[in-house]
Design a protein that fits this description.
There is one protein chain. The chain is α/β, with parallel strands linked by helices. The chain has two domains: 275 residues, 7-stranded beta/alpha barrel (Alpha-Beta Barrel); 87 residues, immunoglobulin/albumin-binding domain-like, CATH 1.20.1430. It is built from 14 helices and ten strands. Strands 1, 2, 3, 8 and 9 form a five-stranded parallel beta sheet that branches. A five-stranded mixed beta sheet has the order 4-5-7-6-10.
Length: 376
Amino acid sequence: MLKVGFAFNFNIQRCEIEVGDEMDIIKKGYEPLLKLFVKHAMKADCFISGFSSEQLQQLDPTVLRYLHDHLDTNFKLGTYTYTHPIPQLLNDREFAMQMAKGMELDQAVHKRRTTGFLPPEFAYTNEMGTILHQQGIKWFIALASQIQKGLEYAGIEQDPYFPCNVDIGGGRTLIAVPAAYQLPDTPARFFKLMMKGKLPVDTVVEGVRKFAKAHPEGLLLFKRDAETIFIDYVNSGFTQTAEVMDEFLTKLSALDMVEPVWIQEVIDTQKTLATITLPDYLGNTKLETFTEGAAQDLWDLTVHVRDKIMAAEQRQVDAAILDQAWNHLLLSHNSDGRIGYWFSEWNPGEHTVAPSRRKFIEDNLNQALHVLDGEC
C-alpha cells in the first residue's frame, strides 16, 4: 500500500499581496484548502510560520479554530521558522533565533510542541541540522533526490522514498522525510503544473498509480504552498484551482492502492531507517534572487544592520535594546519582500513584490538601526 501525504507551508507574507490585504490569502487560500481536506477525509501536515500564526490569530480566529478543531483527524502541525527567511543567507545565530521564535509561537498560538520542520526552499546544511537538533526538532522534509544522493554516497541500495536517519555528527541524528517532485511519465513540478491548469488531473493520478507500483510501501509526499488556490490566481490568472484540487482529492482518495498518512505515522511504522549523511543543498531558489540586481541594496542594508547588532553585542549594549534590534532584523528576513528578479529555469520572472511588502522589510531594517543609534 502506497502511503500518501501532503505537506503545506503557510507564509502569509506573500510577495504579490500588499501588506494589509492578508484576508484575501486567508479566505481565498487557507480556508478553502483546509475545508477540501476535511471534505475528502484526507490528511495533511501543516507548517505555519510563527508570523502567519500571529496574523491568523489576529485577523481570522475562526479559520484558526477550524484548523484546531480538525487537528489529529485531518491535520498535524509542524514548524516553519518565524518569518520564512532564506536559511542560507542567515548566520547560525539568526537561524537559531528564527527557529526558536517560530516554535515559541507554535506553542503560544496552537498549544502544540512541534518537532517536525519544513525548510524554506528545502534548504539544508549540516550546520542547520545541528541547530535543528539543538532546538528539539526530530525530523525534517528533504527532496527525495537529495536523499538519493545520500544513499548513493553511503553505498546503500534503498528506495529513496522512505525516511532515513541523517548523521549530523557527535552521535546525533535527525530523520529526513522525502518529498516528491517527480512522478512517472509526468514533468518535474507536476503538482504545481496541475494547480496552474497546465497538467490534467488524470495524468497526475495515473502517475500516482505508476509510482505505487514502482515504490510499494513507499511514501509519496506532495508539497505545496498553502496559499496555492490564491497564489496561482494572482500569478497565472488561472481561477479554477479550487476545482482542480477538489477533482484531484476526489480521484486520489478513490484509489485502492493508497493510504492517507501524516508524516509522523510513516516514521512510527518504519521498523528500520538507513543512516546517511545528507549533502548540503542551497535550496530551490537561486540566492542571487535575494542578493543581486534589484535586491542588492536591501541585502547590503541587511548585512550592515546585522553587523551593527553584533558589534553592539560586543559592547554589551543593554539587552532590551538588543532584543528590539534583533526582532526587527528577524521580521525583515521574510524572503517574499526581498525578491529582486526571480531567477528560475522553471518560470523566470514569475514573482513580483508588492511595494508595501518591500517597504515592510526596509522599515524593519531602518527601525533596527534607529534602536541601535538611540543607545549611542
